[in-house]
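## tool: complex_structure
## caller: assistant
## args:
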Amino acid sequence: MTAIAKESPSRPDLRALFLGFSSVGLSGFGGVLPFARRMLVEERQWMSAEEFNAQLGLCQFLPGPNVVNLAVLVGKRYQGLRGAVVAPVGLLAGPILVVLMLAMLYDHYGSLPLAQGMLRGIAAVGCGLLFAMAWRMGMALKDKPIFLPFTALTVTAIAFLRWPMPLVMVAGLILSGGIAYWRLGQK
Amino acid sequence: MIVLDLFLEFALLSFLAFGGATALLPEMHRVVVENHHWLDDTTFTHLYAIAQAAPGPNVLVVTLIGWKIAGLAGALAATLAMCLPMSVMIYLLIDRWESFAGKRWQKAISLGVAPLAVGLIFSGATLIARSAELGWPAWLLVALTVLANLRTKWHPLWFIAVGAGLGLLGLV
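## result:
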């Protein structure tokens, strides 16, 4: 144990980043962010809970898969550019191998009625899990009377009218973000 | 060149992925099924189901779509397209995040985009329901899943297993 190692006992090298994020990627079903938090903050203690929340802030502010963005940030923080490449690759490599194996099974057996039935059942459950996720996210919104109508407008435009998403998002963000900006000025 | 098309289409979509790849389901369906006819409705639903049953981040549904359209090159191109643009962005922005976190415009965007993300996820759910052409027993399963998921802390894998079992028995 050198003095430097004592000062930063949990500074991960590239190998640790790869393995740490691999374990996160392979352990989560239906969203792995909670697993990332557990690995980073509790198990390996690469960062404190406050640091985690601060880093997550930018990941959630920008679009894209949050947990991939988080891996990039953590990788960069400890090993610079190489870390920023290795951490997300670690996160995704294992799960990609698994889904590709499943995809090959699907290519061979996907047309069998049993497989079709099973996938239908999973799709129905998956659909329910999505509705539940939307419900939870909706209930967590601030100022619901003002912002929930924008949820309804988005659903109408995307799910029922089938308008193109770029248009809907830009228009929606101008209106909804505009109102949020105005209200922030009122307080 | 289909792999390049796939990459460009998905890279463009990645800029709109507020709420993650799940929020992009409706638009991916439009691009892949309706515009390019690369996949049909049933295959799209099946790929979503496989991604649900596998471990890993939600973005992997994109990998599967890429695989089915253009094999290994397609899988890698689609995944990279979905992750790379924002990864580069976040790599460059993190050092300045402190300076704009909490600014009025930053908070306004976060507040403003949240209800839209909820709408996108909800739309994704309706899209899967529609593409799968669910009958009433399946809708019952959907409703029970929503209730059980909101009221209990059961692991999502149990839900997947029940769905797979009922599907195998031909009940949904």
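## assistant note: Chain B touches chain A through 104 residues (CB under 8 Å). The radius of gyration of chain B is 18 Å. Handing back to user.
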